[in-house]
UniProtKB/TrEMBL annotation:
The gene is Thumpd3. Residues 206-215 have a biased composition (Acidic residues). This is THUM3 protein. One of its GO terms (cellular component) is cytoplasm. CDD domains: THUMP_AdoMetMT (cd11715). GO terms for molecular function: RNA binding; tRNA (guanine) methyltransferase activity. SMART domains: THUMP (SM00981). Residues 14-28 have a biased composition (Low complexity). Residues 170-180 have a biased composition (Basic and acidic residues). Residues 184-305 form the THUMP domain. Belongs to the methyltransferase superfamily. Gene3D superfamilies: 3.30.2130.30, Vaccinia Virus protein VP39 (3.40.50.150).
Length: 516
């Protein structure tokens, strides 16, 4: 694995054929009484933003990360009680706990021999600690669901007590109300300048309380689990009666030198897991998902900690080209937002970028817009969903978010010249929306108008596009107002795209018309 500077060797690594690899699990990781349970966490991240994810892990968890040779994955070690913070990372799609990694696994030439070797790995892997981490993760998920239900019930009871014939947004099934909410969000500012400081204080207090609750849950669960030792090999869980777990094995394979398919590896490895643990195989309604990641000669065995991708956290109303929240976070982080910055997404679609920005950078002001009224409506509905989610948290004050959504024309933005600090947007690829032919006219006009509203000298833009040929040509025509600073190659739904970081020059942009 390509290792970031200062990264210690990862636990759970062994070369095949060595004494360490052949040793039983108990001998490999002796469990000391009272020792802190540590976990090597693997995270899938947007391809191209591995360094961004590693920087976030270092900043928020204090852990150094190593970047896999298989693009789109990072690994880091944390105490098991830090799992709640791990789930709150903004740049990761999926999480898993690493059972063991083989950096240079030598596959046999014949299919039967290679698959038999993979089967033989199962009984020698150190399953005990990773399964404890999985159990702890499961318990925290259950407690979080209970807490959410309690919050919703308490909010409903408060409304009943306060309700003198007034309806306070509890009618979620009323679609007409949802449309009204969309229109209001499009017209009215969600925060006032007078209440900004107070709401930010309350928000930080609520986040701290939530973190403390989850942290104490993790500590309680670890202490409770330390008293009763359960062997992973017996397939038991620490909820009293023994339960036969249901599982499936998912194999992700990359490389052309393997003599077997992903399905064959998953089938045979899964058979060995079933024989070792006496678990029941179930491809849909499973308790445990065992991951077998094979990239050329690198093999990583893990246990999934997320049921669905974390990138779905903000969006409830999806459009034809909804951007992943994790990719939106990576793009925003690339332009290094500072407090009081004005950040604009002129082609916001469903609002993934501005919503992520307002959530993670609440001290900036975010403006989103689109020329499609349906897209504006979807974005407004997504903002409403976020506001309702904030209301459901235990809080006496209803929190707003520093975000406005407007319908406008990208080539004639109703914004003052030089009034915007940062522009972040996902430009039309010319496939599902628009066309490559239209992009030849659209891209230069967009860059010119963005240059006009962006602050000369300090302004910056982060733009995502798959139509790289058209963009590069348009940028060469706008070289007097935009300078390319960095390019990040990304994978968007199987398409090879690029994220461009541009810096605004001191050159004055042409003004087409007067706005004020």
């Amino acid at each position: 694995a390509v290792t970031a500077p200062g990264v210690p060797g990862r636990r759970g690594m062994a070369e095949p054929g060595t004494a360490e690899a052949q040793a039983p699990a108990e001998a490999q990781a002796p469990a000391e009484q009272g020792a802190v349970l540590a976990a090597v966490i693997g995270a899938t991240v947007p391809t191209g933003f591995e360094l961004t994810a590693a920087a976030e892990v270092q900043e928020k968890l204090g852990s150094a990360s190593s970047i896999s040779r298989d693009r789109g994955k990072i690994y880091f070690e944390v105490p098991a009680q830090s799992l709640p913070q791990v789930h709150r990372l903004r740049s990761v799609d999926n999480l898993f706990v690493v059972v063991q990694e083989f950096k240079d696994y030598q596959f046999k030439e014949h299919k039967e021999d290679a698959l038999k070797d993979l089967e033989g790995l199962v009984k020698n892997l150190p399953w005990t600690d990773p399964l404890k981490v999985w159990e702890l993760n499961n318990t925290l998920k259950k407690r979080k669901i209970k807490r959410k239900k309690h919050n919703v019930q308490s909010a409903a009871s408060k409304e009943k007590l306060n309700g003198d014939g007034e309806e306070q947004g509890t009618d979620q099934k009323d679609t007409g109300k949802q449309e009204d909410c969309a229109q209001n969000a499009a017209e009215v500012e969600t925060t006032s300048s007078q209440d900004t400081e107070k709401t930010q204080e309350v928000a930080s207090q609520n986040e701290e309380e939530e973190e403390d609750n989850e942290q104490s849950d993790a500590k309680d669960e670890l202490q409770a689990g330390s008293g009763s030792e359960s062997k992973a090999g017996e397939g038991e869980i620490s909820e009293g009666e023994a339960k036969v777990l249901k599982f499936r094995v998912t194999c992700n394979r990359a490389g052309d030198k393997h003599c077997f398919t992903s399905n064959e590896a998953a089938r045979d490895f899964g058979g060995a897991v079933q024989e070792h643990f006496q678990w029941k195989a179930d491809m849909t309604n499973f308790d445990v998902e065992v991951l077998l990641n094979i990239h050329n000669n690198e093999v990583v065995v893990g246990i999934a900690l997320t049921e669905e991708s974390l990138h779905r956290r903000n969006i409830t109303h999806f459009g034809p080209t909804t951007l992943r929240s994790t990719l939106a976070y990576g793009m925003l982080r690339l332009c290094d937002p500072q407090p009081t910055d004005i950040i604009v997404d002129p082609m916001c679609g469903t609002g993934a970028i501005p919503i992520e920005g307002a959530t993670e950078w609440p001290s900036c002001y975010h403006i989103a817009g689109d020329n499609n009224p349906q897209a504006v409506k979807r974005a407004a509905n997504n903002i409403c969903s976020l506001l309702k989610k904030n209301e459901n948290k235990e809080s006496s004050t209803s929190l707003g978010i520093p975000l406005d959504i407007i319908q406008w024309d990208i080539c004639n933005l109703p914004l003052r010249t030089g009034s915007v600090d940062i522009i972040v947007t996902d430009m039309p690829f010319g496939k599902r929306i628009g066309s490559k032919k239209k992009n030849w006219d659209l891209y230069p006009s967009c860059l010119m108008e963005m240059g006009r509203i962006c602050t000369p000298g300090t302004g910056r833009a982060v733009l995502l596009t798959q139509d790289k040929k058209c963009f590069v040509k348009a940028l060469s025509r706008m070289g007097h107002i935009w300078r390319k600073s960095q390019t990040v190659w990304v994978n968007v739904g199987g398409l090879h795209a690029a994220v461009y970081l541009l810096k605004r020059t001191w050159e004055r942009a042409e003004e087409k018309r007067s706005f004020w």
